[in-house]
Amino acid sequence: MLSLIIITILKKEKIMPWIQLKLNATAKNAENIGELLMENGALSVTFTDAQDVPIFEPAPGETRLWGNTDITGLYEAETNMLPILEQLRNSPLLSSDFSHKIEALEDKDWEREWMDKFHPMKFGQRLWICPSWKPVPDENAINVMLDPGLAFGTGTHPTTALCLTWLDSLDLQDKVVIDFGCGSGILAIAALKLGAKRVIGIDLDPQAITASRDNAQRNNVSDQLELYLPADLPEGIFADVLVANILAGPLRELSTNIESLVKSNGSLALSGILEQQADELIEVYGQWFTMEKATIKEEWARLSGIKNIAS
Ligand SMILES: C[S@@+](CC[C@H](N)C(=O)[O-])C[C@H]1O[C@@H](n2cnc3c(N)ncnc32)[C@H](O)[C@@H]1O
User: Fold this and answer.
1) 128 CA to centre of ligand 1 in angstroms
2) N or C: which end of the chain has fewer CB within 10 A?
């Protein structure tokens, strides 16, 4: 009898346990709005390409972060959404009549929902990215076992895929590699598994540092992976290979910093760049690197180049 009562209570509590708040964003404000949602109690925030279901159109000349971006904050059903909407309305990040949708979701473990959709994927000739909770398709391949946790980087985004394919195409044996904006650590760990002797992962998000550390352990490469917040990066680190999958804006701002971390004749790959932003970044990095033509996947570009030998 008692257990029946408990079951009833549990069932009652389980009705509509999640609320989803969905907004549209621009390249300028997306990350800051995501942070605002987290500060206001969101259990998770995801950015998705919303090309098929735009909530509002970009202003002329405005770029979207991931094409046309939806930002989705996930809340427990008991959360009072009114103060959160009020906060957003008062925020300079959004106009006061911003578009949004609030939906009640069915009862599922939404935070881990993507896990079912994440399958082993092959990049280039040798490299597989495998969810750490699923069996590997080929024991003899180079397998990176990954759980991205709350950080970006599963290999499903075209920019990550472009960087993984580039890393697979290089001879990384005994090389020093920097992964600028390491997220889940996917590129850093792939570089180690492809033969690099030392990799330095840098990210301004502490959750990315945690996810990268956990994934390095999963892959038995913790000893070779050093992880730093940008402010803590020691001086005197120079890379044979640097990969940075951030966004065009930070890549432009960080260009002198990134350039100074690459050895003469070292290799560079940049992604997180929309196709139409590629020429501008080729010009910026062309000051120090011999840049190749952009490689495009969907609407995203990867740029690569070799650092000129200082005269
Ligand atoms: C698009 S994700 C890439 C993650 C992973 N490297 C991949 O390729 O999938 C970009 C990462 O760069 C980090 N990031 C953005 N701006 C940064 C900056 N100025 N310095 C360091 N990390 C930055 C973000 O926190 C995020 O983890």
Assistant:
1) 21
2) C
Ligand 1 pocket test: pick from 156, 245, 256, 257 the residue with the most ligand atoms within 8 Å of its Cβ: 245
The atom of ligand 1 lying closest to the CA of 157 is 9
Prediction ipTM score: 0.99
Q: Is 295 marked as a binding-site residue?
A: no
Yes or no: say if 227 and 236 are a contact pair by the CB < 8 Å rule.
no
Ligand 1 center to 206 CA (angstroms): 11
Both structure tokens of 249: 């804006």
Nearest CA-CA partner of 249 in 71, 63, 22: 63
Residue 66 scores a pLDDT above 50 = no
CA of 9 to the centre of ligand 1 (A): 43
2-112 has CATH 3.40.47.10 classification: no
* pLDDT, averaged across the chain: 82
Binning pLDDT at 50, 70 and 90, where does residue 94 land?
A: confident
Structurally, what CATH architecture does the domain formed by 118-307 represent? 3-Layer(aba) Sandwich (3.40)
Domain ranges of the chain: 2-112, 118-307
